[in-house]
Write a structure and sequence with these properties.
The complex is a heterodimer of chains A (270) and B (174). Chain A is mainly beta. Chain A has one helix and twelve strands. Classes of the chains: A mainly beta (270), B alpha+beta (174).
Chain lengths: 270, 174
């Protein structure tokens, strides 16, 4: 029933709103430009439900455009889960854009991607998240539509979690998930572009859902994001992620994310 | 003395390498935001045959000023826009002509380059004329399909190749 609700909600949103595509929790089908390197630092402050303390995760990340159709993203996972700051793991994501239909101030793109993650952290929740919590593999497909100052992007992906080295996944937990995301956003400022130095302000809403086919357990989160782009190359995101409902056991569902990134355009000689 | 030298030099070499194109107006498709325009600008900046680039962010337009002493490659412009993640919506050249009578299917040879005119009225081009590149990848898919319908008359348009021609571009007088 909840799976049906998620499906209906997603399709309602698809028909209702459109938005700009540099999302925080998901990647659009567009890639980082060829020979461009993006350095990113994502900080998340999530409240542990057990004692209301703050779980801090820092994810340093490098994104690089290998060609016009392919990019790679490598990131590391650092947290205070063991009551000390610890490097827990890393992941590598590869994305291939296989469809691109461009027109004036609009495009439709589709991409396939995969992520491989290694993590040594304690497994303290049923939710599977390769971006900082679990070892495993994930494959997905993304579709993104840009319409002038608005854009919409959606992904469907499949995750298979593996043991975090000595930290085994409890046998009562499912190791496979299907994840859906829907990201919407709007360029608010500037009203009219004059040069590269104007600060861009964007508002976004991302909806993130996970379902475990083995038992039907599901969660749905909403994450409003405020984004600033400085000098057309630096970006600051401030987001609040909140659980709307969940039948999955989660130890830290709600929190704040602050992300900063900087693009080094065209590092190649030619 | 210097003027005499320049006069003699220009008589010996009547056309400098890029004498026929001084600038071009490029519109990139598939982008809106300034970060995307900046990515495109930074790709184009690597082209050695461009002297400078002016960016109109609002209209995703780039005015390209050509270096007259460096051979140009219009397909490199297309590649750079695509490397940034976008595509060329239109590329209009400011091209120098000296009483050149053109009509449909007219081939204008300049050095190793052949410009093949299509969809253009019979006319004489003089001084600077605006011509649009209409090859695949330089115009929208919709426009390309329109020109492809004419390709029974111009088979080189579809193939992009012509016998004994090293570099071929298809142009329309704008």
């Amino acid at each position: 029933m909840k799976g049906l609700f998620v499906f209906v909600l997603f399709h309602f949103c698809c028909s209702a709103v459109k938005s700009q595509e540099l999302f925080l929790f998901t990647n659009p089908a567009s890639n980082v430009p060829k020979n461009t390197l993006v350095a990113r630092g994502m900080n998340s402050f999530f409240q542990r439900s057990i004692d209301k303390s703050i779980s801090y995760h820092f994810m340093p990340e490098i994104e690089f455009g290998l060609s016009k159709k392919m990019m790679i993203i490598a990131n590391g996972f650092i947290s205070n889960e063991q009551n000390k700051v610890t490097l827990e793991g890393a992941s590598l994501l590869t994305q291939y854009r296989f469809l691109s239909k461009d027109a004036s101030k609009r495009h439709f793109r589709m991409a396939v991607w995969s992520r491989c993650a290694l993590n040594s952290a304690d497994i303290h929740q049923e939710e599977i998240e390769l971006n900082g919590h679990n070892s495993g593999v994930r494959i997905g497909i993304t579709a993104t539509q840009l319409l002038h100052k608005t854009a919409i992007s959606s992904t469907i992906s499949f995750q298979k979690a593996l043991n975090n080295f000595e930290n085994k996944i409890p046998t009562t937990y499912s190791t496979q998930t299907v994840d859906f995301t829907l990201s919407l956003g709007q360029l608010v400022l500037p009203k009219t572009y004059k040069n590269f130095n104007q600060t861009n302000v964007k508002v976004m809403v991302e909806m993130l859902a996970q379902t475990h086919p083995a038992n039907g357990n599901t969660f749905l989160d909403i994450a409003p994001v405020l984004q600033f782009i400085f000098k057309s190359r630096a970006r600051l995101d401030i987001a609040y992620r909140r659980q709307l409902f969940s039948s999955i056991y989660r130890t830290q569902a709600n929190g704040i994310v602050v992300n900063f990134q900087y693009a080094f355009f065209n590092l190649g000689k030619k | 003395m210097r003027l005499i030298f320049i006069f003699i030099l220009s008589a010996l070499f009547p056309t400098f390498l890029n004498a026929q194109i001084s600038k071009a107006e490029l519109i990139a498709n598939g982008l809106t935001c300034s970060m995307c325009s900046n990515a495109t600008y930074n790709q184009l900046r690597k082209l050695s045959f461009l002297d400078s680039i002016y960016t109109d962010v609002e209209n995703t337009k780039f005015i390209l000023y050509f270096n007259p002493n460096v051979p140009y490659d219009l397909r490199a412009i297309k590649s750079k826009v695509e490397d940034a993640g976008f595509s060329v919506g239109s590329l209009v050249l400011y091209m120098q002509f000296d009483n050149v009578a053109i009509e449909n299917d007219f081939h204008y040879n300049v050095g190793e380059i052949t410009y093949h005119f299509m969809d253009s009225k019979k006319q004489t081009l003089n001084n600077v004329a605006l011509v649009k590149v209409i090859d695949k990848g330089f115009i929208s898919d919709k426009e390309y399909k329109k020109y492809l319908k004419m390709s029974s008359k111009y088979p080189c348009y579809q193939s992009g190749k012509m016998d004994k021609v090293k570099i071929l571009y298809h142009l329309k007088v704008n």
